[in-house]
Write a structure and sequence with these properties.
24% of the residues lie in helices and 30% in strands. With 167 residues, it is α+β, with helices and mostly antiparallel strands. The chain has two domains: 75 residues, no CATH class; 84 residues, no CATH class. The structure holds zinc ion. Zinc ion binds next to loops.
């Protein structure tokens, strides 16, 4: 079976879908299934070739990952403004503690965040990593977060570790 081209599949290619299974074929014939930075770097260096199985309704197609840049952006190995909504800069962040019930015993505080730099948060994981670097914040990424768009812009509700806010 000839692998198809992920590039030809375009934007619809489900790089990060849970059902997409990656196959890395190393030069020595070994097969692994990672999607980490090392996988990307080996593929870029030509030390391995990367394929993905995109399961369809009736059959699964094998794709060649022929745009490694797109792959790296999808997996957060390379920063992608379009996917994350976040520029690779120091954000201008306005924040307040949320009104309403805050559990004083919780290690986390609910905060309302506004981005004055014009960014939007499409990827909480990437925003959390940026805020850790820029402000020392420990943003909870495993709990729900929300956005509220109004005439004054978009406000995000996030949970941040209390101690990291004070720092
Ligand atoms: Zn920004």
């Amino acid at each position: 079976m000839e692998p198809r081209s992920a590039v030809a599949a375009g934007r619809a290619f489900p790089y990060t879908a849970r059902t997409t299974c990656y196959i890395e074929i190393h030069r020595d014939g070994r097969v692994t299934h990672g999607t980490d930075r090392a996988t990307y770097e080996r593929a870029v260096a030509g030390e391995s070739r990367l394929y993905a199985v995109w399961p369809g309704n009736w059959s699964s197609d094998l794709f060649m990952i022929d745009d490694l840049d797109e792959y790296a952006k999808a997996h957060g190995i390379k920063h992608d403004v379009q996917r994350t909504g976040l520029a690779d800069h120091v954000h201008r962040v306005r924040w307040t503690e949320s009104d309403g019930d805050q559990n004083p015993r919780s290690p986390y505080v609910d905060v309302e965040v506004v981005l004055d730099c014009g960014c939007t948060i499409e990827s909480l994981g990437v925003f959390a990593a940026q805020m850790r670097e820029q402000k020392g914040w420990a943003v909870a990424t495993s709990v729900g977060w929300s956005r509220c768009s109004g005439p004054e812009g978009t406000t995000y509700s996030l949970r941040v570790r209390r101690k990291s806010l004070a720092a």
